Each structure stands twice: as structure tokens, then as C-alpha cells.
Amino acid sequence: MNQLKKLLGLVWMALGPAAIIFLAGQAYEKTSLAAEGSERTNTALQWGIILFIFIPICAGLVIFGYYAVKGAYDRLPADSGEAS
Amino acid sequence: MSKSLPQSSILRVIGASSLGTLIEWYDFYIFGSLATIIGSQLFPEDAGASALINTLAIFAAGFIVRPFGALVFGRLGDLIGRKHTFLLTLVLMGGSTFLIGLIPSYKSIGYAAPILVLILRLVQGLALGGEYGGAATYVAEHAPSGKRGFFTSWIQTTATLGLFLSLGVIVISKNMIGSGAFADWGWRIPFLLSILLVGVSVYIRLRMHESPLFSKLKAEGKVAANPLKESFSKKTNFKMVLLALFGATMGQGVIWYTGQFYAQSFLENTCKLDFNVSRYILLWAIAFATPFFVVFGALSDRFGRKWIMLLGMLGGILLYRPIYQQFLDDTDVTTVSNSQVLEVSEPQTEIKPLGNSQQSLRMRKQVYHLASGMTYLKTETDTLKGGQSISAAQAVSYSDKTLPDGVFWKFVGLITLQVLFVTMVYGPIAAFLVELFPTRIRYTSMSLPYHIGNGVFGGLVPFIATLIASFPGATPLSGLWYPIGIAALSFVIGAVYLNNRQEENVND
After folding, report:
1. What residues form the membrane-spanning segments (chain A) (predicted)?
2. Which residues of B touch A57 (CB under 8 A)?
């Protein structure tokens, strides 16, 4: 199981940047497709919000994957006090 | 802990915490439940679909700031105590909700209206970000070991009951004053009513005592000096924050908001059910399923939290598409034949000028009654110029659908099933989060993953799903790929990385 945790850690590390690239591509495409004027502003704003929120979360996924690769989740704390 | 606490004291703790949290959820959800009407009040009349999307954006903004509220109030809660912090969040929430009810419409003050609402919505989000973690921590720190899942599951019912209360108040207000008056000014009633509910809750919370574990920590001088730093700069704690987010709260959030929010939005906006019918369906489903929060909370004390939560996610992953396809099939009236129609009302024609142009819209409306018991409004629209139609073809739309009894209860059953998935993922999660983190930084540490999972991943379900469904080539079910994908990712991470432990003692 610990080997699987580490292997999947690589997947999470790759998934973070992949998600950011996908979202940025979608943002560019949808904003370009929107009609000029308020529709384009609205679309850009909506995608701006999505990128602003999800980029740090994707970075968190990369860190999670890194911890997994390094074996930080091989043994979880036995109680909450151990986590401090 | 607190084995010595009498049963009546524990019930008082649960009751007072739950009531306040329920009212905060009520305040938060009336906005979402009235998104369509508020959109028409806050944006220009011809804004159409963009008004709804913008309103959802404002709605989503309330969710997005929840993690920041978690940081601000979580830190306060770990520094000055649970009681005073969640008293403050309650006052902020109630005040901002009341003020939303007083904001003039776009017609009166122009774009100042949506801007003011956005500011108040942000305050609501911050307050909610601080509330839940405080209430869950407060109850958990009073609960005896072996019953933490059961006791905290009462807090877990409050989000759903808050939604139930908000829908109930909306439906009753609308029925009392009529649809026209409700769309015009009556939508403000649920917001204004909040001040009374918050007043009662503040009074009750003022009489509560501080959490015994926090009081002990304070007496011993062990309160965290910098809870944010301790929570997120120490790898041993931060790795658990990430695990809680990606392995549990992220999936839990999308299951919650799909089953209880997107479902209603889908029935109203995609299936075009009548306003009240879509809400009655959800009200019944919530009434049937809500007790199961407590059932699954209690079961998690016996069997562990992990697999109950993950099974709830799996249910959503496997069944959302068949369930929503059924909604579409049963409300499709485009293939109705003449032999199925019992009665058609006399056509009513409305003509609406199109801005300052010479053109106008002509809408011909007829109510159809089918032999099955279903009714719907058929609207044929074309564009006129100088009294002559210039449309290549008439646009036909169907709306205000009501369902035959059998289909109505089938829909109640399908939404109940979705809410059951919610009870599985959500019932045990407060106990699960409390047991991951130590007392001195518990409020901060558990609040952040909870509110990113629910506020960001969950709260954005209606917004992102609506956005995906509006893409070229998308089908009405395309929006479901967002919650299904997120829940599947969380399921895999949870299944592989989480353990099924329950902690005897959270006094650390």
C-alpha cells in the first residue's frame, strides 16, 4: 500500500500543473469566443475567479503529491496530538 | 472527555450550537434559493442569462471567501476561545443578511445595487467561514468519547435544515403574497426575517460557557501563540490539512451541493419545473433524509468514519448521470402528441418592446393539460417589426411544468437518494476533522479544509456546472462531470491515504 501511495503521489504532482494548464487554456478559449463588450468582460471575470481560486489549490495538490512521494503518509499519526 | 457532564448539559450545548449554526445556514442559503429573482432585481431587465450567471458569481463569491473567514475566525477561536468567536460570526451574518433585504433594486440605484450586495455577501461568507468550525469544535470538545460522531452529527443536520427553513420561508411568503408581489418586493421578507432569528440565537449563545478543553488549555497557559503558523508551517500538521481537503472535504463538498443545490437548480432551470414544484420536491426529500445525518454519524462511532464517507461519494459518482437523465426524460414535453393533450387554454398574447429599436417581441402563451396529469406553459416567441413578424421561425419554449403525482414522488425519491449520499459524506465529517487536529490549533486547522472543500469545490457546483452546460456542444448533463470528477478524485485519495481510526480522546 505504501508503494501505491508513493506512485499515486507522482500522479497528483502531475495533475496539479495539468489542471492549471487546462483551466488557463479554457479561460483563454472561452474569453476569446465571447462577443466583445459586456459578455467578454463577464466571461473574463468568471474565468478570472476560477483561476484565482484553483491555482493555489492545484499547488496544494502538488505539495500533497510531493509529501506522498516522500512517504509522509506511509504512517498516519495515531492521535491528533501527534499531528501538532 | 466530559464523561462527568450530565446529559441535560450536553443536550443544551448541542441545541444552542446547532440553532445558531442553522440560522447562519438559513441566512446563507436564502440568497442561493432566490438567485433567479435577485438576478432580475439587481441587473438590467434585458441582461437575460448573464444576470443569472452574475448572480451565481455573487453567490459563489460568498463561498469563495469562506476559507478566508476560516483563517480569520479560526485563528480568533484558537486565541480567545470558541464561544466569543462564534457569537461574533452570528452577529455579522445576521446583520449582513438583514441589510441585503434593504438594498434598493437596480432600477433605483443602478450598479450600486449589485456592488452593495456583493460586499454584504462577502461578509456573509467570512462569517460562515468562522461559524461552522467553531460549532463543530465546541460540540466535539463536550462530547464523550465513543459518541463524538453521534453528537457532532446534530451540527451536521443544520446545513440541510437551514436550507429547508430557507425554502420553507420562501414558499410560504410567496404563497401568502402571490408571485407578482414576491418577485417585486416579497423576496426581501426572508432576508428581513433573519434579524429575529439571529436575536434569539445570540441570546441563547450568550448563556453558554466556553469549551472545557479550551478553558483548560487557557488555564494551563498552553493556548497557541500563532495558530496560523502552527497549523500551516509545520509539515506534520499541514500534511493532515491537505489530506483532509483532498481525501474528504473536497468530495464531500461537491456531493452536498449537487444533491441539495444543483438538483433544485436543474429541476427549475433545465427541466423547467414550476418554481414551487421544484422546491416542494426538495423540501420532501430533505424531510425524509435529514434524520440519516444522525444515523450515519452514530454508525461512524461504531464502524469508523472513512468508509461511510467514501460510500456516499461512490453513490454520487455512479448514480448522478442516470438520476439526472431520468429528470430530463420525465419532463420532456417536446414529443407530446395531440392524443395525450386533454385541454389547451385560450392563447394569451404579450408584446414587449425591444429596447429603443423599432422591434418588439410577440409571445403567445398557452397552458396545456395532459391526460397523465402533467401541465405546462408553451410559449411561442417571434420578433415583430412594424407589426409584421420578421423571425425566420418561431422560438418555442416550455416552462412552469407541474408533474403527475407518480412522477412527483419519483422525483422526491431520486432527490432523497442524493440527500442520503449527502448524509453519508457529511454526517461523520465533523468528528473526522476534529480527530485529525490537536485542541490548541483545532479551530484553525479543521476550518480551512472544510471551507475550501465546501465553499470552493462545493459552493461552485451550481456556477461551474451551469457554465459547463453552456459550452458549445454541451448537453444538459455535461455540468455533472464537475462534481463526478471531483468526487472520484477525492474517493481515490481517501480510499488510499485515509485510515479508519477513531480517536478515544481529543484532549491533546
Report:
1. 7-27, 47-69
2. 452, 456
